[in-house]
Amino acid sequence: MRLSPSGLSVPRPSRRSLLRGAGGAALLAGAGIPLLAACGGSGSSSDPKTVTLGSNASDAVPKKAFASVYAAFKQKSGITVDVNTKDHNTFQEQINSYLQGTPDDVFNWFAGYRMQFFAAKRLATPIDDVWQKIGDNFPEAMKKLSKGEDGKYYFVPLTTYPWAIFYRRSVFRQHGYQIPTTWDQFTALCRQMKKDGLVPLAFGDKDAWPAMGTFDQINFRLNGYDFHVQLMAGRAAWTDARVKAVFDHWSEILPYHQDGAMGRTWEDAAQALVAKKAGMYLLGSFVAQQFTNKADLDDLDFFAFPEINSAYGQDTVEAPTDGFMVSKAPKNHAGVLKLLEYLGSPQAEQLYLKTDPSVVAASDKADTSPYSALQKKAFTMIGGAKSLTQFMDRDSRPDFTSTVMQPALQKFVQNPKGVDGLLSSIERQKKTIFASS
After folding, report:
1. What is residue 105's DSSP assignment?
2. Which end of the chain has the smaller Cβ count within 10 Å, N or C?
3. For 73-117, how does the pLDDT look when each residue is reduced to its tens digit (9 = 90+)?
4. Dist. CA 294–CA 287, nearest whole Å
5. Phi and psi (nearest 5°) for 366?
């Protein structure tokens, strides 16, 4: 999902397409069918002046933005980046077999679990030597996102965006609402908004992914980052009392969500916030894409999901992060190192953002002066986080999130009773799916 904190409408893969694209056993089991080919169909280039790169940036805006970055790198280093662009969904669907074949030297991918999965399968090359040079460019939370389970670095982040609760400043002023920082304040605000004739929480789950964002926020606020990671990786049980507590909390605020969520897209839900019919909306910063009027956009603001457990406060931020990895046996290793050192620089990020303002830089050294007010606030929130998560469909196996969690959460949203049975069903299916890796 790519959207513009500055209000610009840009082409983007939907999160649903990301789920579908990266999902399924094909990604994880690697069916032996003709799939992604490397640049030139061989991936065998050993030209010291060329680095091959497999790209999922098939949308026009990010493709143009990356082209400007690679052109600047060539001017700086004399090395050409030979880009092998594939349709975004196709790239995700075929990534496992692609990496087991003759992949390009470098490829676009996602931070966190998605990166760790291929690192653990030894389908990626560790890049600790690169991080010795670029480490000072990133906050600790971004460094943690870039490491495999073995503690080595496998990823160079480029762009990111946060999830938060969005609201209209004028609506809060009109009613005298205060920004809630605790769960009790948040639920009280929901009650007051309902009394005032507002929909407290805009919500649309027709495409099945938005509800995953609500689960994530409550889970890491209640149980902490480490438990979130364990649960998403299949190492904690969905029947754990801590998971039940997430749904208990969610049940408290579910009556304040917009009715009819199963028949509404996130874009349609956003219109309730635009029209000042809804008081708040939990979503990624791409919600700004729906604010096409500048006055409305200038009125848009956000705050972090409130604290539930004081042991964890608000120290975790959900911030899906995109960047680069190195394949298992790059032909031009020296050229790859130079490219990644450049891609890990604030200059490369700033150049990318000139063309694609839908995201913010992953580096905390990037120049934020061209940012909109929303971008600056997003950048600050991400940079100040102790831990960063990647959203359920990136923090866990995509076949699990798409085939199990999406329908399970929709079932809960429609009928919050019977959670124990629902969690037992999730746990049974989880064991089967995670045992297949």
Report:
1. S
2. C
3. 999 999 999 999 998 778 877 888 899 999 999 999 999 888 998
4. 14
5. -70, 150
